[in-house]
Amino acid sequence: MTASPDACDVVVVGGGIAGLAAALGASEAGASVVLLEKAPREERGGNTRFADAQIRFPHEADQYGARAYTPEEFRDDLMRLSRGRANAELIDVLVSRAGETVDWLSGHGIAWDEGFPHTAGYRRRPAQGGQGLVDTLFARCEAAGVSVRYAAAAGELLLDGRGAVRAARCRTPQGVTDAEASGGVVLATGGFQANVAMRVAYLGRFADSLILRGSRFDTGDGICMALDAGAQPAGQWGDYHSAVIDARSPRTECGVTALYNFQMGIIVDAQGRRFLDEGEDFRDNTYVKFGKAIIEQADGVAFCLFDQQAYRRPEFQRAWYPVAPPIVAATIEALAGALGIPHAGLSRAVEEYNAAVQPGDYDLDRLDGKRASGISPPKSNWALPLNEPPFVAVPVTGGITFTFGGLKVDATARVIDTAGRPIAGLFAAGELMGEVYYYNYPGATSVLRGAVFGRIAGREAARRAGR
Q1: What mean pLDDT is predicted for residues 463-467?
Q2: How many Cα atoms are found within 13 Å in the side-chain-facing hemisphere of 451?
Q3: How would DSSP label each residue in 89-107?
Q4: Which terminus of the chain has fewer Cβ atoms in its 10 Å neighbourhood, N or C?
C-alpha cells in the first residue's frame, strides 16, 4: 500500500542548484513546497556539491581588471560552441536572466570570492565553492518552510484523468510514498552520467570506464520518469561534459581534480605525440572538448607537460587541482622515462614544437596570437618553448561531468510531450534539459543554467497552483 503524505502546492525532485532554486522560487511565490532528495542528508546536493560552481554572466569592466563581457558576446559564445544547434529561445532566457540570478543568489546569502582570476569574460565563484552553495541554499529552503525529505528516490510520475502530472511516487526507507502537488512537479534530477548502462547505450562502449566527477546519485531517474509520462527527448544524447582531469583521480565522485592551465604547456599521448591545438581558444571554451579528445584520440590517457616558465607563474598555480604531486625531471629524456613514454618520440615532439614557437607578447588574458606554426597541430596562442628545466608533467584523462541529452523544455521550463504540447503540471530544470549544449561546453554556465531555469520552474509551478 502506498502512503500519502499531506499534499502541497509544488513538489521538487532533486537537491542540486536547479532543485534548490526551484524550491526557493516556488516558496517566494507563496507556494508550499516538498523537496525530494534521493541522497541522504550527508550526501545531498547532486553535482553542485562537487563543483567549483563558477558562474559566467554579462558584466561591465570592473576594478579587478576584467574587461566588459556583453550579453551579445555571451550569447554568441553559447551559440558558437554549440555550432548553432542550441535552442535560441532557451539561450536568450539564460543570457537575459543571468545577471539578475546572480543578484538573487547574493540576496540568499551566497558570498563570492573577490577578485577571482578569470579569462574569456567575467565570472564569479561562490566563496566556498559548490558545497557552500548547497549548504547555504538548503538552509534558506528550511528557513522558508520547504519540507526536505532525504533518501527519497522518485521513480514514477502519477497522472490524473486529464493527463496532467499530479504526484511523484518515491521510495523511502519507510516504504513507497506519493508526494502530491496541486501546482506540479519540478524535475531537477541531473543527467544520466552515473548510470553506466545508459552511458554505454547512448555514448558508446568506451563510456563504461569514464571517471565520474560528480554525484553517484545522478542516474537519469528524472529523464526516464518524464519519458515514461510522454515527454519528448531532446538535445545531443550522444555527447557529454568532460574535462582535462588528473588520471589518478578517484573513479567516482572525484570532484574538482582538473587542470585548467593546460594551455600553458603541451599535451602529448602515450607515444609522446601532440594531437591537439592547446591554444585554440580560451580554456573556458576548450577544456571539455580536450577532455573528450584525450578519451577518443589518445586512448584515454595523455600527459600535460610544462617547464618552469609556466610553472612559476601565479596563473599556473591558481588553475590546477592535481590529486598527487606532478612528475618532475631535469631533462625531457628523463621525463619520458618517468612517464613510460618512448623518449625518442617525446624528444622529437618537444624539439619540433620549440622550433615552431614564434615571437610575440605572451598574455593569458587575451587570444595573444603567440603561435607555434608550421607544425601539425599548431598551437594558436600562448606558445612558449619548453626549455627551462626542471620539467613538470601530470597524467590526464577526460572524466564525465554530465550528459547533454535530456528533455524538450520551453522558455517557462514546461516539459513538452512528443506531440509538441506542454505536459500539464510537469517542469524541468538543470542538467536534464536538452538543447542547451552540443559538442562542447562554455565554462561556468551549468550552475547558472540550473539557477535560472530552476527559479523559473518553481515560480511557474506555484502560479499553476494559484499562488
Answers
A1: 95
A2: 29
A3: HHHHHHHHHHHHHHHHHHH
A4: N
